[in-house]
């Protein structure tokens, strides 16, 4: 039960932050990416602000064996930069620029985004369901023709 | 507006605090695409309810905060083709890369993860090129 309570608190903080920061407004996200148009720096402040408590949390976590609720902490981060990471991030970035939405803000906008947003979310969930099959293909070594 | 950056910073601090709570109490990395994707492809295992409750919090808090604002308009595109293609790319791309703006960006870069920096630079670059091409060259957004 405690795990569910803290998951709710974490999700509530995340949703509040996305909403208050303006990241649920696609024009602000596309404005950040629009270097050659009316560039909007807000996203940099959101990212910078978010990294402050998160960096402190990682420093605290490094001194702990388990989480406060006794669950294991995440393992050390991997340093492998593979095709999936780069190709996936390229695809994600293009979609992010096109719609001005990434997964967090898309979910945070569910109550007020209207049918257009729901269509985006349905397509996003479909993409997530397809990803494991693409992953298997990308894991295969490139065949020599 | 002039105060946008202040609200961006305050919102960012809240996002990071959410990530800190999820890490230090639940022992998990707060990545939106991973939390949603695990429910979609069945890899969530015994963390299923933790994820569902987290997402409920993400959806509910904006509902509670909305009355404080005169107008809430996310400016969602009216172009169906754009929405469907963008959704597919965001869904498949974040799951292939194993992270998005929250997982690789906020949580990854703050622990100086090489993968976090590589992913974030890549998707910001692709997003910038995307907006340049689709807005300024093709005029579809």
Molecular structure report:
The complex is a heterodimer of chains A (145) and B (141). By secondary structure, chain A is mainly α. Chain A has one domain. Chain A is 68% helix and 0% strand. Chain A contains 6 helices and no strands. In chain A, helix 2 (26-33) crosses helix 4. With 141 residues, chain B is mainly alpha-helical. Chain B has one domain (4-137). Helices cover 72% and strands 0% of the residues of chain B. Chain B has 6 helices and no strands. The two termini of chain B are 22 Å apart. At the A-B interface, helix 1, helix 2, helix 3, helix 4 and helix 5 of A face helix 1, helix 2, helix 3, helix 4 and helix 5 of B.
Summed up:
The complex is a heterodimer of chains A (145) and B (141). Chain A is mostly helical and 145 residues long.
Number of helices of chain A: 6
Number of domains of chain A: 1
Query: Main sheet of chain A, how many strands, which sense, barrel?
Result: none
Strand count, sense and barrel status of the largest sheet of chain B are:
none
Q: Tell me the overall shape of chain A.
A: globular
Large-scale geometry of chain B: globular
pLDDT < 50 stretches of chain A: none
Tally of helical segments of chain B? 6
Quaternary structure = heterodimer
Biggest interface, which chains? Answer: A-B, 116 and 107 residues
- Mean pLDDT across the residues of chain A is 95
Q: Give helix and strand order of chain A, one letter per element, not per position.
A: HHHHHH
Strand content of chain B: under 5%
End-to-end distance of chain A, in Å?
55 Å
Protein name (chain A): Sulphur transport domain-containing protein
Transmembrane segments (chain A): 43-64, 85-110, 116-134
Keywords (chain A): Membrane, Transmembrane, Transmembrane helix
Pfam families (chain A): DUF6691
């Amino acid at each position: 039960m405690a795990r569910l309570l803290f998951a709710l608190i974490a999700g509530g903080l995340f949703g509040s932050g996305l909403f208050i920061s303006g990241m649920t407004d696609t024009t602000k996200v596309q404005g950040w990416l629009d270097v050659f148009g009316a560039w909007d720096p807000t996203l940099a402040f959101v990212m910078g602000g978010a990294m402050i408590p998160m960096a402190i949390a990682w420093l605290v976590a490094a001194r702990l064996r388990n989480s406060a609720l006794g669950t294991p902490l995440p393992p050390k981060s991997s340093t492998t930069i593979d095709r999936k990471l780069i190709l996936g991030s390229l695809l994600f970035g293009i979609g992010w620029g096109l719609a001005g939405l990434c997964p967090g803000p898309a979910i945070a906008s569910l109550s007020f985004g209207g049918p257009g947003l729901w269509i985006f979310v349905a397509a996003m969930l479909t993409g997530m369901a397809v990803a494991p099959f693409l992953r298997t293909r990308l894991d295969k070594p490139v065949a020599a023709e | 507006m002039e105060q946008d950056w202040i609200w961006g910073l305050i919102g960012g601090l809240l996002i990071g605090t959410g990530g800190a709570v999820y890490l230090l109490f639940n022992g998990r990395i707060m990545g939106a695409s991973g939390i949603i994707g695990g429910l979609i492809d069945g890899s969530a295992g015994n963390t299923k309810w933790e994820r569902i409750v987290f997402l409920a919090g993400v959806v509910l808090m904006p509902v509670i905060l909305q009355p404080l604002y005169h107008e809430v308009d996310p400016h969602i595109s009216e172009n169906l083709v754009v929405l469907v293609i963008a959704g597919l790319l965001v869904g498949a791309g974040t799951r292939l890369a194993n992270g998005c703006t929250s997982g690789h960006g906020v949580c990854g870069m703050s622990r100086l993860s090489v993968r976090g920096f590589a992913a974030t630079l890549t998707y910001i670059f692709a997003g910038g090129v995307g907006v340049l091409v689709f807005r300024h060259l093709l005029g579809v957004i």
